[in-house]
UniProtKB/TrEMBL annotation:
Gene of this entry: glnE
Record-linked InterPro entries: GlnE, GlnE_rpt_dom, NT_sf, PII_UdlTrfase/GS_AdlTrfase
A GO term, aspect molecular function: magnesium ion binding
UniProt keyword Kinase present: no
Record keywords: ATP-binding, Ligase, Magnesium, Multifunctional enzyme, Nucleotide-binding, Nucleotidyltransferase, Transferase
Organism (species): Pseudoxanthomonas suwonensis
Protein name: Bifunctional glutamine synthetase adenylyltransferase/adenylyl-removing enzyme
Keyword Nucleotide-binding applies: yes
Amino acid sequence: MSIRPGQAADSPSDTGGDSEALRVRIGTRALASLRAAAPRHAALLEDAGLCARVERVALASDFAVDTLRRQPALLEHLAADDPAPLPEPRLDPAQPLAWPTQLRQYRTAESTRLVWRDVLGLDDVDATLAGSTGLAEACLRLALEAVEREFAERHGVVRDAAGAAQRLVVFGLGKLGGGELNFSSDIDLVYAYPHDGESDGRRALAAEDYFARLGQRLAKLLDEVTGDGFCHRVDLRLRPFGNAGRVAWSFAAMDQYFQREGRDWERYAWLKARAVAGDIDAGEAWLETLRPFVYRRYLDYTALDGLRTMKAAIVAEMQRRDMADDLKRGPGGIREIEFLVQSLQLIRGGREPALRGRRLLPALEALVAAGQIAPDHGQALAAAYRFLRRLENRVQMLRDAQTHALPEADEDRLRLAAALGYDGWETLQQALAQYRAQVSAEFDALLVPRRGEAAPDALESYWRALPDGGQAQALADAGFADAEGADASLRDFARGNGVRALSDAARTRLDRVVPALLGAAARSAQPEAALRRLLGLLQAVLRRASYLALLDEQPSALARLVDVLARSALLAERIAAYPLLLDELLDARVAGSMPDAAAMRAACAAAVQAQGDDPEAALRALNEVRQALSFRIALAALDRRQPAEDSARQLAALADAVVTEVLGMADAEVVAAHGPLPGGRFAVVGYGSLGGSELGFGSDLDLVFLYDADPAAVSDGRRPLEAARWYARLAQKVVALLGAVTSAGRLYETDMRLRPDGGKSLLVSSLASYEDYQLQRAWTWEHQALVRARPVAGDASLCADFERIRARTLGRTRDATALAADVDQMRQRMRAELDRSDAARFDLKQGAGGLVDLEFLLQYGVLAGAAATPALLEPRDSPGLLGALAACAWLEAEEAQTLHHAHAVLLEAGLACTLDRRPRLAAETEAITAARGQITHAVQRHGLRFDP
């Protein structure tokens, strides 16, 4: 019989003469011993089908046969077609001497059931691992509850300072924490408790002593070898300070340890940690507080350093103890798959919550979904993992031994291969070698330092000679026009305190990174600008080893960084100020399609919700999401992967999402301080470039706040406020939160001058006063501004009321001559005051034939025609308004198309200026000249005169 590598036989088959003879001999011996063990066995084994199943199990596991012989009732339970889990034992508080026997017999019986189901094909390897985990958890729970009762009688229960009772928290690490325990594994436990205190019994103990003794008693109950064997081997060495540390730790002590002493390998260990017994809720809540230790908020390539160190120790141990055949620690073994997956989780899990799972296979799937592992590689690793875990289980099932090494005896090897459905040991070895080669290739690819092209020797020698040696000619030869200036800047950087204070490891990274950066900068479009911006960035990240590691490990990020810095002063500033944005250069989504408005809203909402009741953290998290998304939009614009109109619309949609979240945060704060206001409504209206969905990079937000409430209404809180003051406080909170400075910067600057009566009026307007102002007192230019206004956040019914007022205001019949005169007068005034064009450069926004000329033309068209054509009131953006005006024939179709193109040309030129931190003044190009001419011609054709 020939079976694909990793495929198991589901029924007995002819696997060759030696295998068949071995199967018959072992099966006959097992049946004879069972028949002799109990009369009930003899009766059951009259069934030929059951005999065949016993023979198959006997070939795979002496342990199972021995358990069946010791526990005669078990065979009858397993004879069912689909044997269910066995009932848990009841540990009688009055008979503690019986507990070890009960637990051990339960564990061996249930383990035998897992062997039975695995060998007979009733469970796949995933189910077997889950079953082993569930069995360990059940034994832990039963043993802990029994021991807790025992301690409560002797010492009472531990109470904290408030008098609340406390329980031990048992954390499972390793495969127990991951829910993937192998058949005969030890269990890695760490004991903790929430608070210090003292027990309330006659023989009181301090919490640390109480829980340490309790934990030791629990470990002995499970681990001690008796005449019935053991229940579970317990390993407590993963606790803080290992064997030298205390047995049980308070949460506060654990916090201090991980803040001060936590090491890289412990991040790997605690990645899988899970509360498995005792006060599970308290344990899971504390693990949430440990998340920043395990997962850093940035892409953390320093995780690879810890992995290389651990891998080197494992290789040394293997060589010392000749462990090449070790399925766990050997080359291409289980641990390499675990380390590979966990490393990628640690690198990216701080930024991508979907990667934070404890279980390996779901984490592997998440890494594939996130684009961090190729789908075919992910499938190969999953298949190898399942193969290796099944083989490891079968090695342990043979005699319930805690081993990961392949058997040495020829008979054991033949039994293992035959029970797995292979036609001999060599066939199994071939399959194993194939899987291990795949795993090794993937693991080695992760660990090999990813330097990319080696830096030119001349630049490397030049950098290493600084600050005292080195010749500027090396920079000139590389392509720097101002080699002397570049040399001076590099010498200043090299002798700076930041470089001199680096650790040896960080300096080694810097010595690899700088020559590569110099080479990339020399090849860029603007070498001097790229170098100047690079040195500013390096100065900002010198103390953050993770960012040097990112550039060292990822040549694609290094090359992309230099390219971006050479072309965009704005992005250079943002990266230097917020190095977290470096992560975006490696995000697989950066080169893909941009998120839509719904995705942005979801990302902003998730960032805020993830911080719970911490408003400061929520604001910082929201800012980080805004920074990351706007950075992605900027990269797409810089690379011209999308039209400028798309980038402007996305920036506006992002601002909408941010304002929505900020309004929710502000509302919660005002309600907490002053109580809710019954029946009140509030809305935020966006004007200007926000309302017109044409926001730029770094643009401020033109906002107007509206409310509607009973003037006599008063909030229901400790410090009540009447409606007008309540909503004024809410508006102030929104403005303050948008402008608050966090570690990720501020969200947005705001401009409130477009509210009714401008800066002289209240910050927030009632709906009635707003309507009265728009209909009775507003100037024509304010109605022009209203053309682009739209609700961006707040109560849906109030937003609808705003739309009603806007439609009523803009839809009035107007005198065409007076309207044109008003529009001309305002534009002429603005042109005279704001146009910065000169003989060499054109003001893209305020210049003659610029973007504001086009906006005024479109606003004039809406105000002139909305009474007859209400459809003109729907769009707020320039492309939408052009389409609507063409649809009603106010603009000719060809004219509208020409103006749309002109708008796109000027908008793209403006975005390019802001990306490079230049004023929106551009040298005339053929495209810009044509766009200006088209806009000016359209303005004049419709009878408008904008020249002062």
